Amino acid sequence: MLSFHALVPLDLAVFHPAGLRELSRDDRYANFNMASMLSQKIMAWIQLTVLLVLLIRQCAARATLKETKRKYITANHILDRHDIVDAFGHVSIRNPEDKTTFIMAKGMASALISNDSDLAYYHIADASPVRPQDSGRERVEKFIHSELLKRFSGINCCVHAHTVAVIPFATSKIPFLPVYHMVGYLGDNVPLWDITQLYDSTDIQDNLVTQQKFGASLAEAFGGNGTFPQSVFVLMKQHGFTTCAATIEDAVYQAVYAKEAALAVMSQAMLQHAYYSPDTASNGGIEALGPKQVEDTRDLPTRFRQTPWELWTKQVEVDSLYTNNIF
């Protein structure tokens, strides 16, 4: 803040001991009054500037939230169009305005999500609704999302699905391997989480992640604790999969290409079976990326996220099934 002396011209007699004797009481009062008025005006301008800055930040935050919700709805449409989800399966996104909460569609098919009223807010701490209107028709597996977002501060988006192409790898001992460069994010050892190990005699054994303890165990299966998990993709035994990422674009990429990876693995296995006769020795097993290739392709979703996202967004925008009313 400016000092009092900076508010009054230096050549005023009031700052000189000799001049003080020469000025009348009224003159000295006028000088001090002028300085006081200047100080008040400067303070008023400072306050106005602070208010303008806060207003600009608030408007920017609202714009960010609106863009996040629009992307969220688009993500649901993309996942439906690629048959990653159908009437079931769900996505979550951390609230950019309040990192302790997350946004998730109410219990409805991803293809039909279109309005702000279709979205609900939940506390990450316990998956409880934030607002009164968030109660009712809640996703029973919201604990998948709350526990992952709680455990990993760098994760902002989660996708859970029962994609038919991926299910065989969650119902057998066949390894789900990254067989080409687009799916290095899978790693060379995809975790398989089994909820049955957590059941007690009072639990309904329907494979659904309906309790906080189930969600916490699933989040633990991703490995690590802190900013990012060791794995970004986990198979759920006799259920489906969950994947997570720092951005909604990356999470969608990982979910879409998990289906492509599953199809590629099964195609390779069928081709080997058709090519090698019982009398011909095969080269054994599934040919997958090597360790260095896996490591060097893990970040492909991040490096090239805009390319597929732009295409997929356009595809759902021109499809009359999908409506996004967040503008």
Highlighted features:
327 residues; alpha+beta; L-fuculose-1-phosphate Aldolase; seven-stranded mixed sheet; 10 helices
| Radius of gyration over C-alpha positions, nearest whole angstrom | 30 Å
Encode the helix/strand succession as letters.
HHHEEEHEHEHEEHHHH
Average of the residue pLDDT scores? 88
Shape: elongated
| Quaternary organization | single chain
Q: What CATH first level would be assigned?
A: Alpha Beta
Q: What strand line-up does the widest sheet have?
A: 3-2-1-4-7-6-5
Major sheet description: 7 strands, mixed
The portion of residues forming beta strands comes to 5-15%
Mind telling me the CATH superfamily name?
Class II aldolase/adducin N-terminal domain
Q: Which fold name is given in CATH as the topology? A: L-fuculose-1-phosphate Aldolase
Q: Can you walk through the features of this model?
A:
- The protein is α+β, with helices and mostly antiparallel strands and 327 residues long.
- Residues 1-21 have low confidence and may be disordered.
- It has one domain: L-fuculose-1-phosphate Aldolase, CATH 3.40.225.10.
- The protein is 43% helix and 10% strand.
- The chain has ten helices and seven strands.
Quick description:
The chain has 327 residues and is α+β, with helices and mostly antiparallel strands. The chain contains ten helices and seven strands.
